[in-house]
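[step 3/7] fold_predict: job queued, chain A
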Amino acid sequence: MHPREQTIFALSSGRPPSAIAIVRVSGPEAATALTLLAGKIPPPRMATRALLRDDSQQPIDDGVVLWFPGPASATGEDVAEFHVHGGRAVLAALFATLSALDHMRAAEPGEFTRRGFENGKLDLTEAEGLDDLIHADTDRQRSQALRQLKGLLGDRARDWRAQIIEASALIEAGIDFSDEGDVPAELIAPALAKIKTLLGEIQQVLAEQGRSERLRDGLIVAIAGPPNVGKSTLMNQLARREVAIVSPHAGTTRDIIEVQLDLDGYPVTVIDTAGIRDTDDPVEREGVRRARGRAAEADLVLWLVDATHEKNLDEGTAPVWVVRNKIDLDAVESDAAGLRLDAAIPRQPADVLEQRRTSADFAISASRGDGIAELISALVGFAQNYFGSGEGGLISRERQRKLLEQTVVSLRRSTSVIEHGEELAAEDLRIAARSLGQLLGRVDVEDLLDVIFRDFCIGK
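[step 4/7] structure written:
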């Protein structure tokens, strides 16, 4: 039997032990499993209490079962759910009973969602939205993923594809009736008008795509600077917990430490790097090399110094904010404790991607907390500018963007080659429709499916 024809099962809730655990079964033997364990099949979509027994009729647990006959289920197949107490022994007994059934096996990561996709319950953009929703760390990421899961991009792509097919049909009809005088011109004109309208709509979506892709990936902020200036202390202040070792000895941080933050709903990864200095220690030298590389890849660098240091970082593409620490130890700066050296939040460029470098100075005491609130407020402002509103963006993945870009190229080419022959334009329209079909996962995506669904959780 082919693996896709087998019945699959998996834990679809959190790791045991837990108060309640949900075990999901999908496939042609789901009814058999339900009958064996619960003694009967309950009414569809109705939670029913049942004493679950193994194949030797020994009790496993007193739980709740549900029955979703296909195709009216999440996967499009027969689905059974077992809601049991989330102890390891309970789950082990339940899994052992299921595994003993013929044509039954444990599910692979993302296999439930993949079966739903293959059975037409959702398109590939919705499946990607579900994956993003599972991995969303902030409220803004959640909202964006939910828009994808609702099928907003998929709905637009289906409409665009239908219009391309209509335009292609008009042009091909013109080819068929080319010997009847004015018929081709009467058909080609509305086809071209439709194509130009489509081009404008897709290009507008592409123009907003950067915000959504960036929101999914998050903003990377690197804390860099010389040794022993308080980088790890600042890291702990931003994280509001002890995530980095704080020591008065230079060179304590040898490797890169990362922490995920939620700044007003924006996902931010803050990186604490090794102190940048010349050293003969090979381990510390490797840490410095990695620190320079990570700072060069960041979206924003907080260059931390004290009164004895100045900025000494190789020029890169990211904006660099100079943060002067230990103002509580400096008599001159102590009067300005907790205040930014310039009164307002640093002016951010209109488009961070077009004008990447900006300069700002802050004065803080990482150990005492002075100036941290102002620095965080500025980081939130930077994130707002970096991500944009994100409300209009439909594209959240590189795969989606590239296929829409290919669609635009094909549509443009169809309008430019039509004067050389309607057949050439019709072929370009077929290529454009195919790109949108790949976006939805309906044509030539088999090689991509393993890559996409392997990142899902087991049981989803």
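[step 5/7] annotate
Confidence is low (pLDDT under 50) at residues 245-254, 331-358.
The longest strand covers residues 59-68.
exit 0
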